């Protein structure tokens, strides 16, 4: 359509087909989700796709929205303050249609690259005995140093850095990832056999949380690291009844003080989870070329 607009002039596609095509074409063209990233940034925007009364969009308008998204995401990428950056993926979510304009919410993920680490030994643990981090709110460690990070962000870092990456594809092939999906978890959903929350979560009716509860020591941090991995790689795929090619892409963990989700809300501390998954496929490069950088 972009190369020969006159050949497709006047053709239409459904609004959801348009959203899917924009997202998927963009990600297979510019995304590098198989690289290893130590941290990520999520940028958001809102664009509009003109649709008719039947919910269809002209291909000319679909191309125009694609170009608009490309310009937005390129700006997000260039503004990311990373020394070695890479683009992971972009997700589009359909919103309401008002006066012939469908809302499309854009989420763009840029990461700081790092060399792929070797698989850690089975007994490896990310946190050492001196590690103590404030639960959240970007308050740093428990000695009030290193603000801008916290226990949630340190866990996020290790989960993203040590995510499962598929083996290199055979010569002449590449992986593509489609249908990005955000999975939200509050933190109170999962317990181990001893009744401990796998994701960091504490609630107190009076809201009188102690320093020890707000400060996670190295043993607690390692417990929640492996607890999060159990949630990410085993529990959620089983809950969602997903096939083996539904892969974890990245996570964002945010430490918050909030109200519980119980019938009568009470104060709680928790690590809010935003987990991204997508379907992974092996395809010939002659059909879908390798991605390019912005």
The largest pleated sheet is described as: 4 strands, antiparallel
The number of distinct helices, counting runs of at least 4 residues, comes to 6
Radius of gyration: 21 Å
In percent terms, what proportion of residues is strand?
Answer: 35-45%
Task: Note the topology.
Elements: H1 5-8, E1 12-14, H2 15-30, E2 36-50, E3 56-58, H3 59-79, E4 85-98, E5 101-114, E6 132-134, H4 151-161, E7 173-185, E8 201-203, H5 211-214, E9 215-217, H6 218-239, E10 246-259, E11 267-284
Antiparallel strand pairs: 1-3, 2-5, 4-5, 6-9, 7-11, 8-11, 10-11
Structure overview:
With 294 residues, this protein is an alpha+beta fold. Helix content is 27%, strand content 35%. The protein has six helices and eleven strands. The strands form four sheets. Strands 7, 8, 10 and 11 form a four-stranded antiparallel sheet that branches. It has a three-stranded antiparallel sheet with strand order 2-5-4, with helices on both faces. Strand 10 and strand 11 (267-284) form a beta hairpin. The longest helix is centred in the last third of the chain and has 22 residues, at 218-239.
Summarize the structure.
With 294 residues, the protein is of the alpha+beta class.
Keywords, separated by commas or semicolons:
about 290 residues, alpha+beta, 4-stranded antiparallel sheet, 3-stranded antiparallel sheet, 6 helices, about 25% helix
């Amino acid at each position: 359509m972009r190369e020969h607009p006159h050949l497709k002039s006047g053709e239409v596609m459904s609004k959801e087909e348009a959203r899917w095509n924009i997202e998927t074409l963009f990600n297979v063209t510019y995304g590098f989700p198989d690289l290893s990233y130590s941290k990520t940034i999520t940028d958001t925007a809102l664009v509009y796709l003109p649709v008719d009364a039947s919910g269809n969009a002209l291909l000319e308008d679909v191309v125009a929205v694609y170009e608009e998204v490309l310009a937005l995401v390129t700006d997000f990428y260039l503004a990311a303050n990373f020394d070695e950056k890479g683009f992971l993926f972009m997700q589009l979510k359909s919103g309401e249609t008002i006066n012939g304009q469908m809302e499309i919410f854009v989420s763009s993920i840029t990461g700081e690259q790092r060399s792929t680490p070797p698989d850690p030994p089975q007994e490896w643990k990310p946190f050492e005995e001196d590690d103590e981090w404030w639960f959240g709110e970007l308050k740093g460690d428990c000695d009030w140093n290193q603000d801008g990070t916290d226990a949630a962000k340190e866990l996020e870092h290790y989960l993203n850095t040590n995510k499962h990456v598929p083996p290199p594809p055979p010569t002449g092939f590449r992986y593509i990832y489609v249908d990005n999906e955000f999975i939200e978890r509050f933190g109170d959903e999962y317990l181990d056999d001893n009744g401990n929350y796998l994701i960091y979560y504490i609630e107190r009716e009076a809201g009188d949380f102690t320093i020890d509860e707000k400060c996670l020591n190295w043993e607690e941090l390692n417990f929640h690291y492996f607890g999060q991995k159990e949630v990410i790689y085993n529990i959620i795929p089983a809950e969602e009844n997903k096939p083996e090619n539904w892969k974890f892409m990245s996570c964002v963990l945010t430490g918050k003080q909030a109200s519980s989700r119980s019938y009568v809300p009470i104060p709680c501390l928790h690590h809010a989870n935003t987990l991204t998954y997508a379907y992974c496929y092996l395809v010939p490069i002659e059909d879908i070329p390798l991605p390019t950088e912005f």
